[in-house]
Design brief:
56% of the residues lie in helices and 7% in strands. The chain has 357 residues and is mainly alpha-helical. The chain has four domains: 47 residues, Double Stranded RNA Binding Domain (2-Layer Sandwich), CATH 3.30.160; 93 residues, DNA polymerase, domain 1 (Orthogonal Bundle); 151 residues, hpI Integrase, Chain A (Orthogonal Bundle); 32 residues. Helix 8 crosses helix 12. It is elongated. It starts with a strand and ends with a helix.
Length: 357
Amino acid sequence: MGLYKRKSGFYYYDISVENGNRIQKSTGTKNKKLAQKIYDKIVADIVDGRYFERLEAQKHSFEDLKERYMREHSRVNKTVTSSVRDQSLFKHLSDGFGGSTLADITPARISEYKSLRRTQGAKTATLARELEVLRHALNLALRDWEWIGKTPFEKVRIEKPNNKKERWLTEEEEQDLLAASLPWLREIIIFALNTGMRQNEILTLKWKQVDLKRRTATLLVTKNKEKRTIPLNQTVLNLLTRKGKVRSISGYVFVSQAGTRVDASNVRRAFISAKKKSGIEDFRFHDLRHTFATRLVQAGVDLYVVKELLGHKSIAMTMRYAHHYPESLRAGVEVLDKCVDFTEQEKKEGLEKSLSL
């Protein structure tokens, strides 16, 4: 039947589709030219197969996306810490997309959200994490759940933060930080500096994962979802031997006064306090891991060994520390010395030959 006008003045469209079905809806306008454009667009979408994809996307809200992502993916496939972070990221995303259908989440809406978060003072890294979790959720909605026909992130660029910031403790700073730390935090810092373990890996470590005879600690839950065994040096072995004499019933290596697992928020507060007392600036707990890696590389430890100790999936992640060991490149430039020596010898031989003539 096509496009027609009702008594209300609004234009409606009536389109026949497969199996004798019909689509009858209002264009939402009384302007004939605009109504015709809307009608032509809908017909084109039906021909290209996009119309019904959009109808499906309109059935599901942003809240549906968030709840299913958290329920079926984040809480199942991620660590507790990562899942809690996802929940926090979705709280911010709700400010921009709450109450919207998935069909409403367009490149333009995402651009508006980026502008909103920047005006709120969100850092590039924070915004990137928020958009990454939204992109991942929409990818699942596309591939696994068939809620949408395409993802808006095909046309959206996520600005990557500069993660090349490098900060590690000097020996003097280390002594100052340890002196300013509470005894329980001091143990955790020493452990981090000598193992390179992430904070969550340290706080979730249990005695059953530690083998003092073999001098190892086996990590069952890591960021990469892979089990990792770390050798323990004498400093860590001495620390664990002292702590092992009085073990908490909870089974955790590092515990609170109540014998429970140390809470990450308490570590953060105590660490900030210790930094202020010691006068150390621009330093995060995670930088203890960078300090571990940097010291190894500066001591000439092979990058592959550092990669395995850190639990990196690829050597590319570890290569950020390569410049700390310029000696590994010395053999390359020393080749030039041999070339120069050879050239000088050639010149000498050539001169002697010319004199003999």
